[in-house]
Amino acid sequence: MSSQYFGAEVVNFYDSYRTAEFVYLASTSLILYDYLSTFDSEVDLFWFRKITGATALFFAARYTTLLYVLLSLVNFSISREISDEYFPSCDMLLKAYVVVQTCQYIPWAAFAGMRAYALSKRWTIFLVILVLSLSPFAVNFVYFRSLAIPVLARSGLIIADLGLVLVTWRSVAFGPLRTVFGRQSFTSIMLWNGIIYAMVLLVLNIFVLSFSLASIFGTEGASYLIDFSEPLTYILITRFLLQLQQANKHNVKLASDHPLHLSLGDNSPSFARVLGSIGATIMPEDT
Q1: Could you count the other beta carbons within 10 Å of the beta carbon of residue 172?
Q2: Can you give the pTM of this predicted structure?
Q3: pLDDT for the residue 215
Q4: Are 131 and 193 in contact (CB under 8 A)?
Q5: Cβ pair 151, 210 in contact under 8 A
Q6: How far apart are CA 194 and CA 230, in angstroms?
Q7: 86 vs 1, 80, 100, 121, CA distance in Å?
Q8: pLDDT tens per residue across span 61-80
Q9: Could you tell me what percentage of the chain is helix, strand and coil, using 3-state DSSP and rounding each to the nearest 5?
Q10: Can the keyword Transmembrane be found in this entry's annotation (predicted)?
Protein backbone atom coordinates (compact mmCIF):
# COMPACT_ATOMS: atom_id res chain seq x y z
CA MET A 1 0.00 0.00 0.00
CA SER A 2 2.80 2.39 0.93
CA SER A 3 4.66 1.58 -2.29
CA GLN A 4 1.57 2.46 -4.33
CA TYR A 5 1.26 5.77 -2.46
CA PHE A 6 4.94 6.53 -3.02
CA GLY A 7 4.61 5.72 -6.72
CA ALA A 8 1.62 8.05 -7.05
CA GLU A 9 3.57 10.83 -5.33
CA VAL A 10 6.48 10.37 -7.74
CA VAL A 11 4.14 10.52 -10.74
CA ASN A 12 2.45 13.68 -9.41
CA PHE A 13 5.81 15.32 -8.73
CA TYR A 14 7.09 14.49 -12.20
CA ASP A 15 3.88 15.74 -13.80
CA SER A 16 4.08 19.03 -11.86
CA TYR A 17 7.73 19.42 -12.81
CA ARG A 18 7.01 18.91 -16.49
CA THR A 19 4.12 21.37 -16.36
CA ALA A 20 6.32 23.95 -14.63
CA GLU A 21 8.93 23.50 -17.38
CA PHE A 22 6.33 24.08 -20.07
CA VAL A 23 4.96 27.21 -18.36
CA TYR A 24 8.47 28.57 -17.85
CA LEU A 25 9.43 28.06 -21.50
CA ALA A 26 6.15 29.61 -22.65
CA SER A 27 6.63 32.76 -20.55
CA THR A 28 10.27 33.07 -21.64
CA SER A 29 9.30 32.66 -25.30
CA LEU A 30 6.74 35.44 -24.87
CA ILE A 31 9.44 37.88 -23.74
CA LEU A 32 11.85 36.89 -26.52
CA TYR A 33 9.13 37.16 -29.16
CA ASP A 34 8.17 40.64 -27.97
CA TYR A 35 11.82 41.74 -27.99
CA LEU A 36 12.42 40.53 -31.54
CA SER A 37 9.14 41.95 -32.85
CA THR A 38 9.83 45.44 -31.42
CA PHE A 39 13.61 45.61 -31.90
CA ASP A 40 13.34 47.70 -35.08
CA SER A 41 11.13 50.22 -33.26
CA GLU A 42 13.63 50.35 -30.41
CA VAL A 43 16.49 51.16 -32.79
CA ASP A 44 14.47 53.82 -34.60
CA LEU A 45 13.03 55.51 -31.52
CA PHE A 46 15.74 55.22 -28.86
CA TRP A 47 19.18 54.25 -30.10
CA PHE A 48 20.29 57.44 -31.85
CA ARG A 49 18.25 60.04 -30.00
CA LYS A 50 18.91 62.37 -27.12
CA ILE A 51 19.13 60.57 -23.80
CA THR A 52 16.27 61.46 -21.46
CA GLY A 53 14.68 59.88 -18.43
CA ALA A 54 12.34 57.98 -20.73
CA THR A 55 15.29 56.60 -22.70
CA ALA A 56 17.14 55.45 -19.58
CA LEU A 57 13.94 53.98 -18.19
CA PHE A 58 13.19 52.09 -21.38
CA PHE A 59 16.64 50.52 -21.59
CA ALA A 60 16.59 49.65 -17.88
CA ALA A 61 13.19 47.98 -18.16
CA ARG A 62 14.08 46.27 -21.44
CA TYR A 63 17.48 44.84 -20.66
CA THR A 64 17.00 44.03 -16.99
CA THR A 65 14.26 41.65 -18.07
CA LEU A 66 16.37 40.26 -20.93
CA LEU A 67 19.25 39.66 -18.51
CA TYR A 68 16.80 37.88 -16.24
CA VAL A 69 15.69 35.69 -19.15
CA LEU A 70 19.31 34.88 -20.02
CA LEU A 71 20.15 33.93 -16.42
CA SER A 72 16.98 31.88 -16.10
CA LEU A 73 17.81 29.94 -19.27
CA VAL A 74 21.31 29.22 -17.96
CA ASN A 75 19.91 28.11 -14.60
CA PHE A 76 17.32 26.00 -16.35
CA SER A 77 19.89 24.17 -18.49
CA ILE A 78 22.28 23.65 -15.57
CA SER A 79 19.57 22.36 -13.23
CA ARG A 80 18.66 19.66 -15.74
CA GLU A 81 22.24 18.42 -16.07
CA ILE A 82 23.77 18.63 -12.58
CA SER A 83 20.78 18.61 -10.26
CA ASP A 84 22.40 15.99 -8.00
CA GLU A 85 25.67 17.86 -7.45
CA TYR A 86 26.63 21.13 -5.80
CA PHE A 87 28.86 23.76 -7.32
CA PRO A 88 29.58 27.14 -5.65
CA SER A 89 29.47 28.86 -9.05
CA CYS A 90 25.94 27.56 -9.59
CA ASP A 91 24.93 28.95 -6.22
CA MET A 92 26.27 32.38 -7.20
CA LEU A 93 24.46 32.16 -10.53
CA LEU A 94 21.22 31.37 -8.75
CA LYS A 95 21.68 34.36 -6.44
CA ALA A 96 22.35 36.62 -9.42
CA TYR A 97 19.20 35.29 -11.06
CA VAL A 98 17.10 36.11 -7.98
CA VAL A 99 18.62 39.61 -7.67
CA VAL A 100 18.01 40.46 -11.34
CA GLN A 101 14.48 39.09 -11.17
CA THR A 102 13.76 41.34 -8.20
CA CYS A 103 15.44 44.38 -9.78
CA GLN A 104 12.94 44.28 -12.65
CA TYR A 105 10.52 46.10 -10.38
CA ILE A 106 12.78 49.19 -10.06
CA PRO A 107 12.28 50.59 -13.61
CA TRP A 108 8.63 49.53 -13.53
CA ALA A 109 8.13 51.48 -10.30
CA ALA A 110 10.06 54.46 -11.68
CA PHE A 111 7.82 54.50 -14.75
CA ALA A 112 4.67 54.49 -12.62
CA GLY A 113 6.00 57.29 -10.42
CA MET A 114 7.18 59.45 -13.34
CA ARG A 115 3.89 58.99 -15.16
CA ALA A 116 1.97 59.98 -12.03
CA TYR A 117 4.11 63.11 -11.63
CA ALA A 118 3.75 64.05 -15.29
CA LEU A 119 -0.02 64.02 -14.89
CA SER A 120 -0.44 65.42 -11.37
CA LYS A 121 2.66 67.65 -10.97
CA ARG A 122 2.75 66.62 -7.30
CA TRP A 123 5.82 65.10 -5.65
CA THR A 124 3.72 63.51 -2.91
CA ILE A 125 1.76 61.48 -5.46
CA PHE A 126 5.02 60.58 -7.21
CA LEU A 127 6.52 59.28 -3.95
CA VAL A 128 3.41 57.36 -2.91
CA ILE A 129 3.09 55.61 -6.29
CA LEU A 130 6.84 54.92 -6.37
CA VAL A 131 6.99 53.42 -2.87
CA LEU A 132 3.89 51.27 -3.40
CA SER A 133 5.23 50.02 -6.74
CA LEU A 134 8.52 49.09 -5.07
CA SER A 135 6.84 46.83 -2.51
CA PRO A 136 7.67 43.59 -4.42
CA PHE A 137 11.30 44.71 -4.70
CA ALA A 138 11.47 45.09 -0.92
CA VAL A 139 9.78 41.86 0.07
CA ASN A 140 11.43 39.67 -2.58
CA PHE A 141 14.75 40.11 -0.82
CA VAL A 142 13.22 38.53 2.28
CA TYR A 143 12.91 34.76 2.44
CA PHE A 144 9.32 34.28 3.47
CA ARG A 145 6.99 31.46 4.39
CA SER A 146 4.28 33.70 5.77
CA LEU A 147 1.14 34.43 3.78
CA ALA A 148 1.16 38.10 4.85
CA ILE A 149 4.33 39.13 2.97
CA PRO A 150 3.41 38.15 -0.62
CA VAL A 151 -0.07 39.54 -0.05
CA LEU A 152 1.48 42.81 1.17
CA ALA A 153 3.73 43.04 -1.91
CA ARG A 154 0.96 42.44 -4.42
CA SER A 155 -1.45 44.67 -2.50
CA GLY A 156 1.05 47.53 -2.80
CA LEU A 157 1.12 47.10 -6.57
CA ILE A 158 -2.67 47.01 -6.74
CA ILE A 159 -2.98 50.26 -4.78
CA ALA A 160 -0.28 51.89 -6.94
CA ASP A 161 -2.02 50.83 -10.17
CA LEU A 162 -5.36 52.05 -8.85
CA GLY A 163 -3.76 55.37 -7.90
CA LEU A 164 -2.29 55.74 -11.38
CA VAL A 165 -5.69 55.04 -12.96
CA LEU A 166 -7.30 57.69 -10.74
CA VAL A 167 -4.58 60.27 -11.42
CA THR A 168 -4.88 59.75 -15.17
CA TRP A 169 -8.66 59.83 -15.09
CA ARG A 170 -8.68 62.97 -12.93
CA SER A 171 -6.37 64.73 -15.41
CA VAL A 172 -8.68 63.77 -18.24
CA ALA A 173 -12.02 64.45 -16.56
CA PHE A 174 -11.31 67.50 -14.41
CA GLY A 175 -7.86 68.81 -15.26
CA PRO A 176 -6.64 71.06 -18.09
CA LEU A 177 -6.42 68.03 -20.39
CA ARG A 178 -10.18 67.47 -20.48
CA THR A 179 -10.59 69.65 -23.59
CA VAL A 180 -7.79 67.79 -25.35
CA PHE A 181 -9.03 64.31 -24.53
CA GLY A 182 -12.23 64.71 -26.52
CA ARG A 183 -10.32 65.32 -29.75
CA GLN A 184 -8.84 62.73 -32.07
CA SER A 185 -5.23 63.67 -31.37
CA PHE A 186 -1.98 62.03 -30.35
CA THR A 187 -2.49 63.56 -26.92
CA SER A 188 -5.88 61.93 -26.46
CA ILE A 189 -4.58 58.63 -27.82
CA MET A 190 -1.68 58.61 -25.37
CA LEU A 191 -3.91 59.53 -22.43
CA TRP A 192 -6.44 56.88 -23.41
CA ASN A 193 -3.68 54.29 -23.77
CA GLY A 194 -2.35 55.34 -20.37
CA ILE A 195 -5.71 54.61 -18.77
CA ILE A 196 -6.00 51.26 -20.56
CA TYR A 197 -2.47 50.17 -19.64
CA ALA A 198 -2.91 51.15 -16.00
CA MET A 199 -6.24 49.32 -15.78
CA VAL A 200 -4.81 46.20 -17.42
CA LEU A 201 -1.94 46.18 -14.91
CA LEU A 202 -4.44 46.69 -12.09
CA VAL A 203 -6.59 43.76 -13.19
CA LEU A 204 -3.49 41.63 -13.79
CA ASN A 205 -2.20 42.22 -10.26
CA ILE A 206 -5.63 41.48 -8.79
CA PHE A 207 -5.65 38.16 -10.63
CA VAL A 208 -2.08 37.41 -9.51
CA LEU A 209 -3.01 38.06 -5.89
CA SER A 210 -6.07 35.83 -6.21
CA PHE A 211 -4.09 33.01 -7.81
CA SER A 212 -1.34 33.40 -5.21
CA LEU A 213 -3.86 32.88 -2.44
CA ALA A 214 -5.38 29.95 -4.33
CA SER A 215 -1.99 28.26 -4.77
CA ILE A 216 -1.12 28.74 -1.11
CA PHE A 217 -4.38 27.11 -0.09
CA GLY A 218 -3.71 24.18 -2.40
CA THR A 219 -5.50 24.87 -5.67
CA GLU A 220 -3.52 22.83 -8.20
CA GLY A 221 -2.20 24.75 -11.19
CA ALA A 222 -3.08 28.22 -9.90
CA SER A 223 0.56 29.15 -9.32
CA TYR A 224 1.44 28.52 -12.98
CA LEU A 225 -0.61 31.51 -14.08
CA ILE A 226 1.47 33.75 -11.81
CA ASP A 227 4.56 33.03 -13.93
CA PHE A 228 3.07 35.13 -16.73
CA SER A 229 2.56 38.26 -14.61
CA GLU A 230 6.12 39.59 -14.92
CA PRO A 231 6.40 39.00 -18.71
CA LEU A 232 3.03 40.69 -19.27
CA THR A 233 4.02 43.64 -17.06
CA TYR A 234 7.29 43.97 -18.97
CA ILE A 235 5.52 43.89 -22.34
CA LEU A 236 2.86 46.43 -21.33
CA ILE A 237 5.35 48.95 -19.94
CA THR A 238 7.92 48.72 -22.74
CA ARG A 239 5.24 48.89 -25.43
CA PHE A 240 3.70 51.93 -23.77
CA LEU A 241 7.12 53.61 -23.67
CA LEU A 242 7.56 52.82 -27.36
CA GLN A 243 4.17 54.37 -28.13
CA LEU A 244 4.98 57.48 -26.10
CA GLN A 245 8.29 57.85 -27.89
CA GLN A 246 6.60 57.36 -31.25
CA ALA A 247 4.07 60.08 -30.42
CA ASN A 248 6.83 62.34 -29.13
CA LYS A 249 8.67 61.89 -32.42
CA HIS A 250 5.85 63.67 -34.30
CA ASN A 251 6.42 67.41 -33.92
CA VAL A 252 6.29 67.52 -30.12
CA LYS A 253 5.90 70.96 -28.58
CA LEU A 254 6.33 71.69 -24.90
CA ALA A 255 5.17 75.27 -24.47
CA SER A 256 5.53 76.77 -21.01
CA ASP A 257 1.75 77.10 -20.66
CA HIS A 258 1.04 73.55 -21.82
CA PRO A 259 -0.64 71.23 -19.27
CA LEU A 260 2.18 68.67 -19.42
CA HIS A 261 5.07 71.12 -19.46
CA LEU A 262 6.62 70.50 -16.04
CA SER A 263 8.78 73.39 -14.91
CA LEU A 264 10.54 73.20 -11.55
CA GLY A 265 11.10 76.93 -11.34
CA ASP A 266 12.42 79.93 -13.21
CA ASN A 267 16.05 78.98 -12.64
CA SER A 268 15.61 75.23 -13.01
CA PRO A 269 15.63 73.15 -16.18
CA SER A 270 12.27 71.85 -17.28
CA PHE A 271 11.53 68.48 -15.76
CA ALA A 272 9.90 67.58 -19.08
CA ARG A 273 13.37 67.34 -20.60
CA VAL A 274 14.23 64.76 -17.95
CA LEU A 275 11.01 62.83 -18.42
CA GLY A 276 11.31 62.96 -22.19
CA SER A 277 8.35 61.30 -23.88
CA ILE A 278 6.77 60.42 -20.52
CA GLY A 279 6.20 64.08 -19.75
CA ALA A 280 5.71 65.23 -23.30
CA THR A 281 2.55 65.55 -25.31
CA ILE A 282 1.50 66.95 -28.66
CA MET A 283 -0.20 70.28 -28.86
CA PRO A 284 -3.84 70.00 -30.03
CA GLU A 285 -3.39 72.39 -32.92
CA ASP A 286 -0.73 70.16 -34.47
CA THR A 287 -2.94 67.13 -34.86
Answers
A1: 19
A2: 0.74
A3: 65
A4: no
A5: no
A6: 19
A7: 34, 13, 22, 53
A8: 999 999 988 888 777 666 55
A9: 75, 0, 20
A10: yes
